[in-house]
Amino acid sequence: MLKKSLLPLTLLLAMASAQAQSPAAPAAPATAAPAASSAAKKDLAARIIKLQQPAVEGLARSLVEQPAADLMERAALALPQRVAPDKRESTARDIQADVKKFVDDTVPLVRERAIKVAPLSAGALLEEKFTVDELRQVVSVLESPAFVKFQQIGPEMKNVLVEKLLADTRGTVEPRLRALEQSISKRLGIEEPAAATAPAKSAKPAKPASK
Q: CA of 188: how far to CAs of 17, 60, 111, 125, in Å?
């Protein structure tokens, strides 16, 4: 990293020396620095985008899966109204198969396109908003073994957080959720099954009349 950070300074010193020796041609050094900086930015931005490729691919997948999931949800709501009871199960399976085929066929296409356009879009934004030194710092962080390890345990951290959060809030959330479910059922006119009642105690047999 030190050698790379000294490279722009070396170029500047070389250009300053050339300008001092050739004062009649000042235009060449003036255009060389921005060109070198632009090339460095482009290389560093491309490097960052490459390091973030898993995130780019995940974004591409979500762009395909989300609308497919929305369609599935709407189909599930329409199924009871549009399809006869004896055909609902088979129709639901056919719809699921159609959705799966759409996702399997479309995700690779969108993922490939995302990898191609990422340098032209996100990469260009990095070049615009960051200096060369800042881009070097970002690369250094992304390539840091500690950061790579941190990213690897991301799913595990999420799981332990969710598990602990559910345990701590179950007593608060579940009664509210049951109350919401009952409210929705009443609005839809759905009667909940009556709670089981304890069996009534059998009456004691009457004493026989004394003779």
A: 84, 38, 42, 50
